[in-house]
Amino acid sequence: MKLYGFPASPNPWKVRAAAHHMGLPLELELVDLTKGAQRKPEYLALNPTGRTPTLVDGDFTLWESAAILQYLGNKKATALWPHDAKARADIMRWQCWHLQHWSRGVNGFVFENLVKSILRIGDPDPKALAQAGELFHQDAAVLDKHLTRHPYLVNDALTLADFTAVAPLFLAERAKIPLENYANIRRWFGTQAALPAWTETAPRP
Length: 205
Ligand SMILES: N[C@@H](CCC(=O)N[C@@H](CS)C(=O)NCC(=O)O)C(=O)O
Description:
By secondary structure, the chain is α+β, with helices and mostly antiparallel strands. It contains 9 helices and 4 strands, in the order βαβαββααααααα.
């Protein structure tokens, strides 16, 4: 199987990390976001959204990282995607929450404080940062409260839900994501950041 992506981007990285944890080999095909490779016709033919990651498994092409994670979870029996309807629905719930809510606030900081400087497209916009802050704190409070009682998001065990939602926090320092008041989120992140799945798939400088 091939995964098209940029190693430092959270969405491709989470797929590579989860695949590593499950023992599923994935060949990385570089899509250099800093050079606009995601907008080249050959990539758009695989993924018309011009975003990464994209998985190619034989004649099957799949984009959207949460869908890819579930597809990989179905390839091999794994505790990350338990064979249980309630656990799967609970994982889906956190993946939906991530896509609609958590990623919006977090990505606001990533774009304003990090992507803009990498692409040299201007300074952070204080209004956009304020909006990102509002979105972020609303959902960080929910997540932190959940993590006061649980080590992980679902069934007190590491699952695809954790791989989904933790990934953008690898950029927290550089993107100035305000985690100071969220000790449980920082602990949850630290536990996962130490896993070989993440360290061994980490982008090389
Ligand atoms: N919901 C999508 C988000 C994909 C996404 O935004 N990927 C970023 C990298 S983390 C990207 O490719 N950005 C390039 C662009 O928007 O031009 C997923 O989970 O796969």
